[in-house]
Each structure stands twice: as structure tokens, then as C-alpha cells.
Amino acid sequence: MTWADYRKNSKKAKIYLGFNLNQGIPSKIFFTNRKGAERLFVNQILLPGQTGVGDRGYQKHDLFDFLQDEGKSFVIRIKANTSKTCLKENEVNPDSIVFYDAEVLLGKPQNNNQTKRMAVSHFSMSNTFKGYCAERDCSSFFK
Questions:
Q1: Model's pTM, two decimal places?
Q2: CA-to-CA distance for 90 and 52, rounded, in angstroms?
Q3: What stretch of H or E contains 137?
Q4: Higher confidence at residue 106 or residue 129?
Q5: Which of 24, 37, 73, 84 is the most exposed place for a label (fewest CB within 10 A)?
């Protein structure tokens, strides 16, 4: 393998890992010799019918559209200041960890907005952590 040439006297490789959360084992691994966004590997790692989990670094609205077209599900923590156009707000159980649930379009037209509707649920698991599920249907994650 050709090593990544980040700086003098330092050679590195970068890996992109698909991890099976149900079995606790890696499912796919890709090596590269360059810096780059992990988002580019999501489509290669995730198969139709599987659900990918990602942090805010995976937020890219055209990627969300593409994954939906490919039949791939995802739960990705979106940035708190993300623009949302609410298409339909859903009722929330007051005893649930979910405090907002709606079908939305993310982004603004001048900012690579999304073209496919998706569900966004805001939830709180402690006083310090707030999560944002961006999916076609988040309800199964909160049962």
C-alpha cells in the first residue's frame, strides 16, 4: 500500500470502517492513502435495508437524498442550527424522550437543501445530550 503523505517524516493510512452494531464486529473496511471525508464511503459500506449511524460530520443533505433513493436507512445527528421546513408535525408522547417529531426538508434552497422529505426527531437522553434523528421514519428508534 502507498502510505499517505500528510507531512514530512510522517506516513499514515486512513481506514473507513463499517461496524455491525448488533454483533459488535467490523463488517467492512476500506483503506486509503489520503485525507478525505468519510461520507464518501457511506454508500459503499451501507447496504439496502441496513441502518447507518453517524455523527454530525455525516450531515450532507444531498447524501440523505441519495441514501433514501438507494433504500438505505440512517440515523444521523444533525447540527442544532440546521434549517428545517416543517411539512407535518407529529404528536409526541409527553413521557417519551422525544420532544419534537416531524416530517421536514432540511436546508435552504440557496444552501443545497434536501429534495426528499424525511423524519426528524429531537430527543434527550440526559441533561447534557440531545440527539437528532434524521431518517425517513424515526419512530422505531424510540420504542
A1: 0.71
A2: 24
A3: none
A4: 106
A5: 24
